[in-house]
Specification:
Blueprint (H helix, E strand, L loop, with lengths): L8 H22 L1 H4 L3 E7 L10 E4 L2 E12 L2 E8 L8 E8 L6 E9 L10 E2 L2 E2 L4 H13 L3 H15 L3 H20 L1 H20 L1 H20 L1 H24 L1 H20 L1 H18 L2 E4 L8 E6 L6 H6 L4 H10 L17 H4 L14 E6 L5
Amino acid sequence: MKAFTDRSPRRIGVVASALLLAAVVAVLVVNRSFFTSGYTVDARFAAAGGVAPGTDVLVAGVKVGSVTSVRLTGDHVDVSMRIDHGVVLPARTAAAVSVQTLLGQLDVTLRPISGWSRPLVGGAVITDTSLPVELYNVENEAGTVLAGTDAGALNQLVTELSSIAAGKRQEISQIVDGLNRFTGVVDQRRTEVSQLIDAAGTLSQAVQARDAQLASAITNLSTVVDGLARHSTQLGDLIVNTEQTASQVDTLVGANTPQLTGLINNLDSVLGVLSSHQLDLAQGVSTLASAVTGFQSVGYSGPDNVPNQWANIYTNLVGTSGVAGVLGNCGALDLVLDKALGPDPLACAQRSGPFAAGAGATAPGSSPAVPAPSGTGLAGVITGAGS
């Protein structure tokens, strides 16, 4: 085997060159993304607007790529742009064709809006696009308008404007500065203005969707208003009568204020007395309930064909038989009632209730007394006319 130094230098150079070339190719293949121009993003425009391959792509006035192709797709134009590596665009990005110089040099300006958490990637499509007004279009339109314009009147207008602005350079400068600031504020608030316009569009769509209901509501309101108009006289009379009634009530109350005050004071006194005698009233009501229960059993004496009958009303007695001697059948109270109202149609023996001692023997024309059941006593014998 030959030593390395004994080999042919030419062969060694060829082998070394081949190895170096292979290493360079491998590095290029592995790091090919480092040498590429970036990632591709498409923008969908209504028209090409003069954009061609090689047109600069700008973000905030800085070139970040270029247009690679412009192709017609249906009724719109797709512009492919190669964006440099390291340039991050949010998901919501607007693209506009802008005029760089007065000579008409164009560029595609990208304006980031929102969605930085989801940046654009290769193959994304930007649909928020706009085109400038071409200068030649303005010239064509202006030529048509100027052709039909009264040159003398236009010259007179310019002369009058010049005379009005003479000596008012400072005021005009202030007006221009104010307009400049105003347009700057509007530009800063373009997102809010866009949202406001979108909200107005949504509102108009909702109103349009509910136009039938709104028309019905307006019709019903018109019917109500017509009804009120037809009854305006009655409503006026009702209001006048209500006012008169209120006035009369006010006069009546004012004229009788002392009496009303005294009545209220007396009522307050009565309520105070009732409040202080609540227990007494409760006991009275309870006693009345017992009395009503006793009066439920009423025995009528005498023949049915007699218009005036005797009603003997009894209740239970609590106590000794001495009470029956006063309140019992043919007792002292019964004898007094017989003298005052006339004799009882029935003899003592034919009545119910306890008998007083010796009542059966003393009552004239009466039968012998028959003892009443125990526990029952005569509360009183009430004579009265009853049918």
